[in-house]
Each structure stands twice: as structure tokens, then as C-alpha cells.
Amino acid sequence: MAKRVLQDKYFKKAKAEGYVARSAFKLKELQQKFELIQRGGRVLDLGCSPGSWLQVAAEYVGKQGVLVGVDLKPTAVNLDCVSHTIVGDLNDLDTDAILELAGDRFDTVLSDIAPNTSGHGDDLVSAHLCRAVLAVAERVLKPGGRLGMKIFDGAEYQDVLAETKFRFMQAKGFKPDATRDVSREMYIVARGFKGKGVDA
């Protein structure tokens, strides 16, 4: 019951503060603990709809920052910085075009993507999505860049975490307070991208 009240609190808080979804507070907590987003930085948000993570990222990058969001669905939020949203598939992205929009490689890649849950094999689909996020991150991140991505805890979680550690100097799992208690949602957060082709 207490957790349900907490979830209602986040829902009401999101509406009161003008965020399009309560997931905004997950990114806020990730930012407070891990400083994934830099002032004036370039951020790529994969699976950006409905736009709450773009809203939060815009607050942290400021007017000098650049945001690019990608989702299968159109996303429209008003942001106080240079921003672009693209309708596209994570598995078939033109990363050269995305880098051209950003003007340089990204400082941070974010992903709050979740599979359409069926109750069977959802964790495996989530792991597949995370590997697609990692593949994009390898092509667009600056050396030293940062990553924050959702994953479902399950059979592939430790493998995906290890694959992330191979590419970054630091990587760990974290569950924000704003995540529902019954949810298997976790986040992998990583810092210090080693650069494409750099040995671990």
C-alpha cells in the first residue's frame, strides 16, 4: 500500500511539474547519483517518447546543449535548447545523419526503452534492446562518454552488464526509487567510454 501511495505521488508530481510522464524522476535520480548529463553537453535519447527524459535532459544541458531523440512514435515536447526528434527504428539508425544533427559526437547516450511485455521472455527482449543501444553508443559516443539504459533483471542481465563493462571504464546496475516495486526494471549506468575498437 505504501509503495502504491509512492507511485501515485510520482504521477501527481510529474503532472504538477509539467513532465509528460513520471519516468522523468527516474532520470533525475540517475543524474543526481551518477551525473550522466553535462552542462552544455550533447545527449542522444533512444526511445524518447513521450518525451519526459528529453525534458529532464534539457534542464541539465542548458541552452548551450544539444539533444537528439529517437523513437518509433513521433515525440513533441517544448525544450529550451537545440533539439531534434527523429522517427526511426533503433535497429536501423543512420548514425552518420544523427551525428550531423548533433554537430559532434555525443557526451551521453540514454535509453528508457522497454519491450511490449507479454510475461514470457520479456527480460530476453530487453537484453536484445540493450545490445542494440550499446551498438549505437559505440558509433556515436565520444571517448570518455556516459551511458544510462533500462534493462529488465533476468537471465541476460549479468551478461549485458559485463558487455557494458568491456566498453566502459565503470559500469553498474541501479534501481531508482521511482521504479515500481514489483517491476524488474533496472538501469545500467556507465562512465568512461573506451572508444570503438579499444581493448578492455
Draw up the topology in text.
Elements: H1 2-17, H2 24-34, E1 42-46, H3 52-61, E2 66-71, E3 82-87, H4 95-102, E4 106-111, H5 122-140, E5 141-152, H6 157-167, E6 168-174, E7 185-193
Parallel strand pairs: 1-2, 1-4, 2-3, 4-5
Antiparallel strand pairs: 5-7, 6-7
Helix pairs in contact: 2-3, 5-6
What does this structure look like?
The chain has 200 residues and is an alpha/beta fold. The chain has a single domain, classed as Vaccinia Virus protein VP39 (Rossmann fold), CATH 3.40.50.150. It is built from six helices and seven strands; from the N terminus they run ααβαββαβαβαββ. The protein has helices spanning 2-17, 24-34, 52-61, 95-102, 122-140, 157-167; strands at residues 42-46, 66-71, 82-87, 106-111, 141-152, 168-174, 185-193. A seven-stranded mixed β-sheet has the order 3-2-1-4-5-7-6, sandwiched between helices. Strand 1, helix 3 and strand 2 (66-71) form a beta-alpha-beta unit. The longest helix is centred in the middle third of the chain and has 19 residues, at 122-140. Residues 1-5 have low confidence and may be disordered.
Features:
single chain, 200 residues, alpha/beta, Rossmann fold, 7-stranded mixed sheet, 6 helices, globular, disordered N terminus
CATH class: Alpha Beta
The count of DSSP E runs of length 2 or more, i.e. the number of strands, is 7
Look at the structure and give the mean pLDDT: 89
The CATH architecture designation is 3-Layer(aba) Sandwich
Largest sheet: 7 strands, mixed
**Helicity, in percent?**
25-40%
**Could you give me the name of the CATH homologous superfamily?**
Vaccinia Virus protein VP39
Total helix count?
6
Order of helices and strands: HHEHEEHEHEHEE
Measured between the Cα atoms of the first and last residue, the distance is 45 Å
Rg from C-alpha positions?
16 Å
Approximate shape: globular
Strand content: 25-35%
Strand order of the largest sheet: 3-2-1-4-5-7-6
Q: Return the domain count.
A: 1
CATH fold-level assignment: Rossmann fold
Low-confidence sequence ranges: 1-5
**Which structural class best describes the helix and strand composition?**
alpha/beta
